[in-house]
Amino acid sequence: MSESVNVTVTGAAGQIGYALLFRIASGQLLGADTRVKLRLLEIPQAARAAEGTALELQDGAFPLLAGVDVFDDPKQAFSGANVALLVGARPRTKGMERGDLLEANGGIFKPQGEAINAGAAEDIKILVVGNPANTNALIAQRNAPDVPAERFTAMTRLDHNRAVAQLSQRLSVPVSEIRKVTIWGNHSATQFPDILHAEVAGRNAAEAVGDQQWYADEFIPRVAKRGAEIIDVRGASSAASAASAAIDHVFDWVNGTREGDWTSVALPSDGSYGVPEGLISSFPVVSRGGKWEIVQGLDIDAFSRARIDASVAELAEERTAVERLGLI
Length: 328
Ligand SMILES: NC(=O)c1ccc[n+]([C@@H]2O[C@H](COP(=O)([O-])OP(=O)(O)OC[C@H]3O[C@@H](n4cnc5c(N)ncnc54)[C@H](O)[C@@H]3O)[C@@H](O)[C@H]2O)c1
Ligand SMILES: O=C(O)C[C@H](O)C(=O)O
Known about the structure:
Distance between the termini: 41 Å
Family: Belongs to the LDH/MDH superfamily. MDH type 2 family.
CATH class of the largest domain: Alpha Beta
Strand content: 15-25%
CATH architecture of the largest domain: Alpha-Beta Complex
Domain Lactate/malate dehydrogenase N-terminal: 6-146
Number of strands: 14
Binding site for substrate: 92, 98, 131, 162
Catalytic activity: (S)-malate + NAD(+) = oxaloacetate + NADH + H(+)
Strand order of the largest sheet: 3-2-1-4-5-6
Number of helices: 11
Order of helices and strands: EHEHEHEHEHEHEEEEEHHHHEEEH
Bound molecules: nicotinamide-adenine-dinucleotide, (2S)-2-hydroxybutanedioic acid
Binding site for NAD(+): 11-17, 105, 112, 129-131
CATH topology of the largest domain: L-2-Hydroxyisocaproate Dehydrogenase, Chain A, domain 2
């Protein structure tokens, strides 16, 4: 059994936090051989609720759980962190777009980036879940100049999983048969869920669907607006599915993606596919040796190009907005 790994989770007393922490403690984030020390960060008003969750974690008697500490100070919470899940932020409510949260939530990620820069472990891996996730990740990254930029990622795995599930339902095939779906761009309604390179049981997915109108007018908006659909039907933003996607994201980062497949992650662009360098945009990626690599060489047709460009333009606008707010 290895040394324990420090996992910092922000927003630990929130909805996603509650769905996430028990899965981490059970070994699903890092694997069944890795002991975990949880470091929970909350705002002072919610720290007692996080203490309550810590008591429940203790009551789970998880063999892989090496300890739980609760903090209300980011510097302490991120000290020595090997993995950081930045969940704590306000969720949107009915009628809002995720970008509307920029002003309310952006300010959270500057001090957290600074705290990561000051005290996280050398091998820190960061996943931002709190919305607007891509731009919050950009804020944290730009405030942590000593941490390699590629360690900062934002979550589009929930969108990816949603796309796989919709395709599976449409084609009546198990999700395990679906490969190489991509989410491009922002975790927002402008995102582009791409099935043109995807495979279903070894066959091209777009050909298997054979219905461009369903793809353009039903599938893409259904996936891109699924967060709003959940808020409408459930009365609160997605929580357990978001926690599950966060587990998938980090598990694949640490353990590698499966052969013959890829996943979707928002990470700092290196200029691939014409996305301006530095923007935290979603790409098709594989994970090898604990590092994400953008899948290269995919043909991008005019339909896809227009959609990728629109989502990337929104990311550039969000970057300008946070520059104006003095957050980067
Ligand atoms: N990227 C995605 O796919 C995705 C999916 C679902 C939800 N989200 C986002 O995740 C965020 C959390 O959602 P939730 O449903 O858990 O919300 P929630 O309101 O239930 O919980 C948020 C928690 O964060 C805490 N918090 C606020 N500011 C903090 C700070 N500075 N430091 C530490 N903790 C802080 C709050 O006290 C609260 O307990 C929201 O922004 C939501 O929109 C993202
Ligand atoms: O849509 C939201 O506001 C929550 C989350 O980002 C989601 O995709 O479910």
